[in-house]
Design brief:
The chain is built from 4 helices and 4 strands. It has one domain. By secondary structure, the protein is an alpha+beta fold.
Length: about 130
């Protein structure tokens, strides 16, 4: 399992990105999701996906009262699929943060997208 955490300035949200590498990552992922008070059925959903060796997907969880977000990435079958999944889940982070803070501004959205793009780049570099 590869884990990378960072804070989003201005919004004060801590994000943890987790790349699943094997079925043995189920228990550590469960602990991470419990720490952000994820509902039991969603934890079971994600942990079950890890145990079934799901591919080419991810799950984004948020508890913005705690100012925390966690993204779990399943293994992918290609770099192209990984790029697709990372972009998809990154967009969920953007939407949820901007929604939570009632931001309706394309420049603010663009700045957040760029910041997260850099963080996802750093996360992906850790995997090589």
């Amino acid at each position: 399992m590869i884990k990378y955490s960072f804070n989003i300035p201005l919004y004060y949200v801590k994000v943890t990105l987790v790349q699943v590498e094997s079925v043995e990552d189920a228990a550590p992922v469960e602990a991470i999701l419990k720490a952000v008070k994820t509902d039991k059925e969603w934890i079971e959903y994600t942990v079950g996906g890890i145990k079934r060796n799901c591919r080419n997907g991810g799950d984004t969880y948020r508890n913005l009262e705690l100012k925390r977000m966690v993204v779990i990435f399943y293994r992918t079958t290609s770099e192209r699929e990984r790029s697709n999944v990372y972009s998809h889940e990154k967009r969920h982070i953007e939407d949820r943060v901007l929604e939570w803070y009632s931001v309706n501004d394309i420049e603010a959205a663009g700045l957040l997208a760029g910041f997260l793009g850099e963080k996802f780049y750093e996360f992906e570099k850790r995997q090589k």
